[in-house]
Amino acid sequence: MELVNTHCHCVYSGHGIGTIAEYADAAAAAGLTTLAFTEHYPLSPAFDPEEYLSMRPDLVELYLAEIEEARAAHPEIEFVVGTEMDYLGDLEDRAIAEADLAPFRFRLLSVHFIDGWAFDDPAQRDRWEEEGAPDAIWRRYGELWCAAASDRSLPYDCMSHPDLAKKFGYYPTFNLERLYDEMAEAARAGERMVEVNTSGGYYACAEPFPAPGLLAAFCRAGIPCTVGCDSHDPANIARDIERAYGLMHAAGYRTVTVPTATGDRRSITIE
């Protein structure tokens, strides 16, 4: 069965390692047929003052050029030019024109910030320890996620790591099933894709994003699903892809949706 990874990061973000060429070589060695480069779209200094979270604007052209070089070096792999964008809600301080996004044929959208707080940043996790915090944080995360997923005016294709709020292993006291249904309905309203993100298995939550119950809710709602490793190191280029296929199959999916280099989608059968 084909192996695809539609989410990876390299040296163009301050927290990734490995060049695009190294990723391309690793993808070839692992037998991937599709790899989407999804470097973090530039954030303003207000959100990324140390240029650690996102790609610097002056590096975008070099990023695009090196993906073309990788494509020439490995014609057996379909490389997709992509980016991962951040949903900032009412705090959005960037003027992003369609022309700025035109080179990116696959666009992930992530909720990493809750009202300006990078809730998944290990250096800022103390807030999770406050009394009653998990309930309040999960509720607000759900509100922002649903707002992002359902808004058809936003220029992106896929919601990444859908239940990222579980990263550190903090969970609310309330049952999450209702939130799962709300998230699935929001994705359907926005006509979005979601991903199974295998990186969750290596955090405190010890399972991929999303949880099985949320993945099943997406399947019931008819939401297309892809697979991304969220690789920040070429060594993880194919980590747990087959496991992700198994989780999708258990949730009711029979196909994996894969973005293409031209901005279209194709499907592969889960065997």
What is the C-alpha radius of gyration, as a whole number of Å? 17 Å
Low-confidence stretches: none
Distance between the termini: 7 Å
- Return the average pLDDT rounded to an integer: 97
Beta-strand residue fraction:
15-25%
Q: What portion of residues is helical?
A: 25-40%
Number of helices: 7
Strand order of the largest sheet: 1-2-3-4-7-8-9
Instruction: Tell me, briefly, the overall form.
Output: globular
How many strands, which pairing sense, and closed or not: the largest β-sheet? 7 strands, parallel
**What class, by secondary structure content?**
alpha/beta
> SSE order, as H and E?
EHEHEHEEEHEHEHEHEE
- Counting DSSP E segments of at least 2 residues, the number of strands comes to 11
Describe this structure in words.
By secondary structure, the chain is of the alpha/beta class. Helices cover 30% and strands 19% of the residues. It has helices at residues 20-30, 60-73, 98-101, 133-150, 177-190, 212-220, 241-251; strands spanning 3-5, 32-40, 78-86, 106-110, 113-114, 117-118, 158-159, 193-197, 225-228, 255-259, 265-269. The strands form 3 sheets. It has a 7-stranded parallel sheet with strand order 1-2-3-4-7-8-9, with helices on one face. The longest helix has 18 residues, at 133-150. It is globular and about 55 Å long.
